[in-house]
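To: structure desk
From: M.T.
Subject: fold request, one chain
Message: Could you run this one when you get a chance? Sequence is below, nothing fancy, just the single chain.
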Amino acid sequence: MSHERDQFDDLPDPLADDLVRLYRVDLQPSPAADQMLLNRARAHFAGRNRTLLLRRVAGAAAAVILVAAVLIPTLRRTDHGIAIVRQEAHGDVNFDGAVDIRDALALARRIEEKRTKPIDDFNGDKIVDRRDVDALAMMAVRLDSKEVPPR
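Reply: Done. Structure tokens follow.
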């Protein structure tokens, strides 16, 4: 509540005087208490900034580790340095390392969503359609033990 008398202008004078006297606060904080409060506030915000910096550094480190975990398996040493090599089996649509019926399902979903690529043509007719899904399913369930040639 404010300590100003003018907020009680619409009240009778005796009542307004009593209210002002009742709610009057004459406390002045000591300079030591002010300084202590200011120091605690500064320490709080300094700790908060350190925590924010720590979170940012930890997030950046996690991103670097994630990128390294994805890229390291695809790196291969060559005579000219290190090259990124991605070996994919022909028909491995979902890139899980095996040609199976899940690849045919993934291709069917791509066709439904109209997100096909020219490399998705598995039967060689230059059209990616349901017949390619069937051809991929046949590749996935064949019984010979020959390894699938890379793309």
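Reply (cont.): The first strand starts at residue 75 and ends at 78. Let me know if you need anything else for the meeting.
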